[in-house]
Design brief:
InterPro entries: SAM-dependent_MTases_sf (IPR029063). With about 325 residues, the protein is an alpha/beta fold. About 40% of the residues lie in helices and about 15% in strands.
């Protein structure tokens, strides 16, 4: 019992493949719609894949890096790009200091000009203030090498009318220079003492309380006030004037004002860069024929920072360095 398979009449379709009896226009529109859908789908899949690459790629890379390091914190630090400094043979900024100062002031105008920094009056006016009197001690003088023979030597060499002391602390060396100048007949010598009067970090506990008498009030030591008290006790407030400024800013101010000195002592910071800046800035303020000297030539701080700065400056300015005890003196290299 076999069933015969129906046979489609050859006349049922045309040679073009269009079913007989269907609308050719409708068939064309359906084919066009199908092609548009296919193109849209391809475009959508392409954009989806591209977006996935943008997101998954960095995530996968970070994941692999984190897995290889095993330390997310160190990995985040390692991803910070390093700071690349320009490669130059010589850093000109290292040598760039004020090259020209104002014309010299008459000596008779120096004190009044300095007092302009204190509202046109002496900083000793109405000193000490009532609220500080219980904390200030009389003749509380400390220092290092502040009465060494080098002071009389350089004073005899310079016969100074104006002395600038860069780094003064409690005024021990300034008071000693005042005594020496008086003894040598230089009774009108003015000593400008530049210091920020802040000591150094950990100052209060230094040397098992060596400076315990210099108290701390609300985080600020009263070094300047104790310095001034020492000067008043010695009766030298007309000749020794504090300049409570950072050495760089203070020396530049003297340069812009036209205040020069016959004798300059540099005894502030002990690091190379501190000493280098102070020496370069102070040198501009030295009168022709004047003398510059300083302390801590053999101090080991920061691998003998002061000595390296002194020697480097002397070499570049054709000077000779003469060590004198703990001190150093510049002389022309003849």
């Amino acid at each position: 019992m076999f069933h015969s398979r129906p046979v489609r009449s050859s006349s049922a379709t045309s040679s073009a493949g269009i079913t007989m009896g269907s609308d050719p226009y409708t068939h064309h529109q359906d084919r066009k719609t199908h092609m548009m859908r296919k193109a849209f789908t391809c475009m959508f899949l392409f954009l989806l894949g591209y977006a996935a690459c943008l997101f998954v790629g960095p995530w996968w890379e970070n994941r692999n890096m984190l897995e290889s390091s095993g330390d997310p914190k160190s990995q985040s630090q390692s991803q910070t790009p390093p700071v690349v400094l320009p490669s130059i043979a010589r850093d000109e900024d290292f040598y760039r200091f004020p090259s020209k100062c104002a014309l010299p002031l008459p000596e008779s105008s120096i004190l009044s000009t300095v007092f302009k920094l204190f509202d046109n009056k002496s900083p000793y006016a109405n000193f000490p203030p009532e609220h500080l009197r219980p904390y200030l001690l009389h003749n509380e003088i400390h220092g290092w090498g502040s009465t060494n023979p080098v002071f009389e030597k350089v004073i005899r060499l310079a016969n100074p009318r104006i002395i600038i002391e860069v780094g003064t602390f409690l005024g021990n060396s300034a008071l000693h220079m005042a005594n020496v100048t008086r003894r040598l007949g230089l009774e009108n010598t003015i000593i400008l003492c530049m210091d920020d009067f802040r000591g150094w970090p950990g100052f209060a506990g230094y040397n098992q309380g060596m400076f315990r008498s210099v108290i701390d009030i609300n985080g600020d030591v009263i070094l300047m006030q104790q310095f001034m008290q020492n000067v008043v006790d010695a009766g030298e407030e007309e000749r020794i004037i504090p300049m409570p400024f950072a050495t760089g800013a203070g020396l530049d101010k003297l340069c812009l004002t036209g205040i020069y000195a016959d004798l300059i002592e540099v005894d502030a910071g002990h690091s190379f860069h501190s000493a280098w800046e102070d020496i370069n800035r102070a040198w501009k303020l030295l009168k022709p024929g004047g003398v510059m000297f300083g302390h801590d030539y053999f101090n080991g701080s920061e691998e003998y920072g002061v000595r390296r700065a002194v020697d480097k400056f002397a070499k570049e300015h054709n000077l000779r360095v003469e060590p004198n005890g703990e001190h150093w003196i510049f002389f022309p290299n003849t």
